[in-house]
Amino acid sequence: MAEFQNVKEDSSSHIMTGDYVTLMETSGKECESWYYFIRKEGNEEALQHLHEQLEKVNWYILDDYSTFDLDMEHVVSAQTAKQLTKLELNSYTFHRKFDGKLLKIDLGFNDKDKNKKKIKKTFHLLGYGQIDEYISDEDIDPEDLLSSSESGSDSSDSYEESSDSDEESSSDSEEDKKIIEPITKKTKTPKGLPPSLVK
Asked: Which of 76, 106, 126, 196 is packed most tightly, with the most Cβ within 10 A?
């Protein structure tokens, strides 16, 4: 099995009490939805701040970008969140549970931003599981990780499709291209492996 420094080896250290809210990412490219379960206790202010920003967007599937929804009203237990991370329904990545402290995320919206630009800005910061850049202590068991041999050739694939879509969207403004540019340089994550663990 692959070894990663940020994975807790002792599963008993995972937090299995308290409530979790759900951030859902729906990928237009992969045609999947991924749930990120975030511990509510201690993160209320950061979660509310993120929720208020996401509510300013009229979400719809735009090209290969993702949509995001944060349900603050209905919580799940730590046990339920953990069980859902074990489901093998998606082909690209699993649902994820985070036990740590969530940083305050600023999506960078301003009054002049059109809806399409807000979608792109959000995807640039949070797309493909990048919520893990803002929260610590992911609850993932070592046996759930893929080794490099199990991941096959997927890890070497690049986003060729993204390059194709960039050519098709040549009508985008220069400012939009600045938002898109870092995304196209990403390498594809091995299926089932959270992006933070590839680093």
From this structure: 126
